[in-house]
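Bug #77: duplicate submission created two jobs. Keeping one. Sequence:
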Amino acid sequence: SSGINAEYGGDLSQLVVSNSTPHTHIMQLGKDKKFTTKEVLEQHLERVTSVDWAPRSNRIVTCAGDRNAYVWNYQEDTGYWKPCLVLLRINRAATYVQWSPNEDRFAVGSGARLLSICYFDPEHNWWVSKHIKKPIRSTILCVDWHPSNHLIAIGSCDFKCRVFCAALKELGDKPQTSNWMPKLNKFGTLLAEFDTTNSGWVHGVGFSPSGEQLAWVAHDASVNVVNSASLTKVHTILTPSLPYSCLLWMSEMSFVAAGFGYCPDLYTVSAQGVSFTAKLDVKKEKSGGGEMSAMARFQKLDVQGQTGNAGTTVTTTHENCITEIRAMARDASGTVTKFATAGKDGRLVTWDMESLSAALGGLSL
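Kept job's structure:
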């Protein structure tokens, strides 16, 4: 089954989707509240692995297995999206792409064991890249920018989560010192490195809204959080569920993780560490079912022509692994009030925290 990567435009009336093909679809919300394909972006030769839409500058970036990335600019005069070449200079598939908070650069992770930080070169009218190589030893699976626009975190298949300096002198950056970077460092400097507990690939990584905390999820079913004030103290819990593949900070004190368990889960962060709070995919139990006797169960199976191990029923909204989670709306304090998930079942699901909180008896973010 194919997975989808999805990202909403600034006003949430449009959606960009890649579904494991070389094509990327721009979808428009109609009056019937349904999305239909408005335009297909055709430039890649292999399947598109990641997309990101910069809401303020209204630019879309895509990367794919053909080792290329393109920045798409909307043309007001024609009403279509025009691609602009990105010089990635990689020899393996691109795996993940994300715009920086200021939208003046973006990062591309790849199987080439390096991170490409890309920025626009107006002289040649294309996007160029600078590479961060050491000490990355395997494919980069996830990327997240620090709110400062000058630091970046990555998770990779060498069982490590790392934080680098991504300040570009070409763009006149003047980074500030912080707990992550006590003294000013040059581009590509490794600022922090964390091992996953039981050697699991790092699938998802994210800075908290303030940038003071960093969370990552790995294939050993671990959830990890570290505060920049004490980088040697990593709070880790091994979940009883299947591994997570992505995460999204809801506020400074909570985040949602989702993945192979088909369901988004809420976690709370405090000075004592990180703790599981609730499963957000709430299903109402069917009433009137009651207990069934062994004889009645056998008679039902006999009538329906089924065996006792006919298969398990998926009770979650998603029916396969969740691959993407994105914020859709925030309140005045910056807390996420609505988010969307996309998965390998080809579904895109929106979640409203207000209604979820009411269904779960009042959650505080």
